[in-house]
Write a structure and sequence with these properties.
2 domains, Arc Repressor Mutant, subunit A, 268 residues, single chain
């Protein structure tokens, strides 16, 4: 009797398509385990909430690490890590001989953090410019409403200094930045200056490159128009002049290769 054996192949049989589809569509049996915050993060959060709720004021002394550990029911190591986190945020300061105290968060720390984020290349020029325009056009209108004689005089001084230093790109860029800061000061609302500083300083390189490629006459003429409308207490005119100025800045930047340089470097 003769037996016939099936021929062997080097390939495994393909899985049936229907079976593969069923496997892909099969739901997970278990949900992912949520990660709980570390104990030190929880303690830091509770301490921060207490400070922000005004139950503690700037300069108030906090309990010692041992006392905090007893109150929270955690080890001193956990408390130490939580304190280190809040010190890094500028919320708490460690004073030699007097322990932990609530610190005043400096405006400069806030603007510097934002500026570093923007200068790190996380956002491109067009996005920063969009926010800057929204902010500065409104600031110009408020400055025209609220500026006193001393504000107008300060703005005139900066404008004339930039005229005198227009041949020095570095100095002119600083004057340009200061011109916009003085307008923010003229609103008599400190928050506008804080917001402007966080954006304006990140665009310092844009100012430097525009001025270096010859934008100083245009910039000075547009600054003069903004100054004139603020001095005349014309809010609508000041907003229009500022919008035209910022449009001019962006157009110059694009026309002189700024967009290509930003794409290469990845910075705003």
């Amino acid at each position: 009797m003769t037996y016939y054996r099936p021929m062997r192949t080097d390939r495994e049989p393909d899985s049936p398509p229907a079976a593969a589809a069923a496997t892909a569509a099969e739901p997970n049996l278990f949900e992912q385990v949520a990660r709980e915050p570390r104990l030190s993060d929880k303690v830091a959060g509770m301490m921060l909430e207490t400070i922000l709720s005004n139950r503690l004021n700037v300069g108030d002394r906090l309990p010692s690490e041992r006392e905090l550990g007893e109150q929270f029911g955690v080890s001193r190591t956990v408390v130490r890590e939580a304190v280190r986190e809040l010190v890094a945020k500028g919320v708490i300061e460690v004073r030699s001989g007097s322990g932990l105290r609530v610190a005043a968060v400096a405006a400069s720390a806030v603007s510097e953090s934002m500026s570093l984020f923007l200068r790190g290349g996380a956002l491109d020029f067009e996005k920063v410019h969009e926010v800057r325009t929204l902010l500065e056009v409104h600031i110009a209108g408020l400055a025209a409403e609220r500026a006193g004689p001393e504000d107008v005089a300060a703005l005139q001084i900066v404008h004339e200094r930039m005229q005198a230093e227009s041949g020095d790109v570095e100095a002119a860029a600083r004057d340009d930045l200061e011109f916009h800061r003085v307008i923010a000061v003229a609103t008599h609302n400190d928050l506008f200056l804080l917001l402007l500083d966080s954006i304006g300083s990140s665009l310092f390189e844009i100012r430097r490159e525009n001025l270096g490629s010859g934008s100083a006459p245009m910039t000075l003429e547009q600054h003069a128009q903004v100054l004139d409308r603020i001095a005349a207490h014309d809010p609508d005119g000041a907003r229009e002049a500022m919008a035209a100025h910022l449009d001019g800045v962006a157009a110059w930047w694009r026309a002189h290769g700024g967009h290509e340089r930003q794409t290469e470097t990845g910075s705003a």
